Amino acid sequence: MSDEVLVDVDGGVAVITINRPRARNAVNGAVARGIAAALDGLEERRDVAAYVLTGAGGTFCAGMDLKGFLSGDFPVIPGRGFGGIAEAPPKKPIVAAVEGYALAGGFELALACDIILASEEAKFGLPEPKRGLVAGAGGVMRLPQRIPYHVAMEIALTGDHFPASRLYELGLVNHITPVGEALAGAVELARKIAANAPLALAATKRVIVESADWSRDEMFKKQAEIIDPVFGSKDAMEGAAAFAEKRAPRWQGE
């Protein structure tokens, strides 16, 4: 793991930190490779059930490192996309903890997450048109799926910064925290998620993500293909037994 990406695992939650505070955590090739490598390892670990993605030094991420872009250092991983995550988010739930700025590719990294927590002074934006670029890491595709069309157009076409409070009103940001407490809030929420059965979490996330393309005729059939193995799992039996015995369940991920 490179110094540009830090990973800390505790209590079933892995905190993945972009560690380039002097560059406002702009994503270069090393960051993209670091995030991809971290997820490759963490996805197989049974002691990790959820992730938090954040940035060091009071900023989430200012987007692509434009100096690196000019030198040919592209922050894209084949099959994984920008930042090693934009095109292939992890199977396990991931929460974004946003302080400061989440701009351009930084906003797109947050959009690749399942839940967003932001401090009251955080700002979001897709300023690519101001630099002759286009938000190609999912921003202009995911944003209109999450908020009203006309607001998504305003954000994408003006390139302006929008406060976390506005995106909270629109339902894009789940929770607003005091400045400096986004990470703590995200970890607390991730631990609440991680307390649940890992197979059930992965299946639930998969159904929510994939069902957007399902027709009415096929939706329950496709859902069954994903969730039926969960109902036959050891964890399903353990969940029922724990409930009956009035104790906390002991998940095995099986």
TrEMBL record:
Q: Which organism is it from?
A: Streptosporangium becharense
Q: Which GO terms label this protein's molecular function in UniProt?
A: enoyl-CoA hydratase activity
Q: Which InterPro entries does the record match to this protein?
A: ClpP/crotonase-like_dom_sf (IPR029045), Enoyl-CoA_hyd/isom_CS (IPR018376), Enoyl-CoA_hydra/iso (IPR001753), Enoyl-CoA_hydra_C (IPR014748)
Protein name per the record: Enoyl-CoA hydratase
- The enzyme's E.C. designation: 4.2.1.17
A Pfam family annotated for this chain is ECH_1
Q: Which GO terms describe its biological process?
A: fatty acid beta-oxidation
Q: Which keywords label this protein?
A: Lipid metabolism, Lyase
- Give the protein family: Belongs to the enoyl-CoA hydratase/isomerase family.
**Organism phylogeny:** Bacteria, Bacillati, Actinomycetota, Actinomycetes, Streptosporangiales
